[in-house]
Amino acid sequence: MRNDELSANPAERLRLPAPAGNRKPEATADDVQRLLDALPADLKPLYATAVYAGLRRGELRELRWEDVDLVSGVLRVVRSWDDRQGEITPKSQAGTREVPVPPLLRDYLTAWKVESSRDGAALVFGTGASSPFGPPNVRNRALKAWDRADAVDAEEAKETGRKPRPLVWLGLHELRHVWVSLLHDAGFSLEMIGKFAGHSSSWMTERYSHLLPGAAVAAGEGFGEYLERANTLRRLEQLGDGVADDPDAATGAQTGSQAPENRMVERNWLGLPS
Description:
The chain is mostly helical and about 270 residues long. It has helices at about 30-40, 45-50, 55-60, 105-115, 135-160, 170-185, 190-195, 200-205, 225-230, 230-240; strands at about 70, 75, 80, 85-90, 95-100. Strands 1-2-5 form a 3-stranded antiparallel beta sheet.
């Protein structure tokens, strides 16, 4: 079912206990931005691509610059990396796809391309031009960075008398699920998200049915504008009115569920006619 090779699920009515520690990742645009800000410079573009383009871990490991069109704002997923088989092609037709790149992610990737001095067939996030990154090493570095950021925040909270604001730690796979939620909050249909994610729309509906009830959020002019609007920390910094120094002042800021009702679905960001 996951690879779109079966049209009916033979285990549809089979009830199984939930795996220990299983949870649905929940993170806002602010949570994501705080995670990215705390990371080392060379990890920011990797984690930004995971949460703003929704690529799988294997797809991130085998993404090449020739698959990234920063001018058009599109990522082409045509290959992945398997620890046993090495480079592989997507297992289903839906797995080969184009994924839109919002302006926020384009900034990360543009800066990283300049910094890494790679192009063409070179890997975007490899430890070398042809060596995929090691997930354990990346994860350990990210966790250490987030742990340091939490320690700094806890110390500042103690000095100022406010409550600590620990980060919502998320892995690459969990960030893919956050990407789906952010796209849905921005007004994209599960069918459209399914095409970007490399799944059939029926799989998306079953997996993310919890997003449907009462979630008829009017669409925005695009995912990029949604992220800018939902990211209250960045907005407050741009305003420069000093409110950014008070995190509690942002709690009432606009989120995806409070977005204006006059937005258009999947429009300028995808280059589609209004």
